[in-house]
Amino acid sequence: MPRSKEGNMKAAKKTVIGKKVATPRTETVTAKGTKTKEATVKKTTKKAQAQGESSRLSAPVFDITGHRLGQVTLPKETFGGKINEELMAQAVRIYFANRHPKMAFAKTRSEVKGGGRKPWRQKGTGRARAGSTRSPLWVGGGITFGPKPNDKKLKLSKKMKKRALVSALSQKAKLGEILVVSNLEKLAPKTKMAVSLLQKLKVGESTLLVLEQNKKNIKLAMRNIPDVNVDLADSLNAYEVLSHKNLMFEKLAIAKFQ
Question: What is the DSSP letter of 150?
Answer without folding.
Answer: B
